[in-house]
Here is the input.
Amino acid sequence: MDQDVDKLDHLDKIRRLALLHRGKAPEVERERRAPGRPERSLTATLELLRQAGDAIKRVEERAQETEARSDMLLQRATDELKAAEARIDAAEARARTAEARVQELEEWLDRIHEVITQEILPIDLAEANADSSDATPEREGRLEVAARRPR
Here is the structure.
């Protein structure tokens, strides 16, 4: 874009030079033109038009390049978004699986706890009462811990 501005400045300089050159035209030619109209050079005008056309063409090419780059970036961003969404979906599925396994393990732990408190601890307490004559400090400590456990 800056190049185009530079080209337009250059065109303006050429136009000024052409006008200066016209200022040195013979007196006869100046008299033939209508009063109040600037002197024109067909060649300079055509050159200016050609340069303006070239500048417009470069601007259009640059716009097409920019649009193509934008399309490419948009496609890349879309692809990355789809990949990220797929990773999120996979992570959510793994999280759901892990939560289900945790729930299952908690149920198993509850069952094990129930079996221990209902089936094993009552036996230990019954043995403790029967063997009260054999009470050692170590065994008494274990019995106290077993008795304090919730049922």
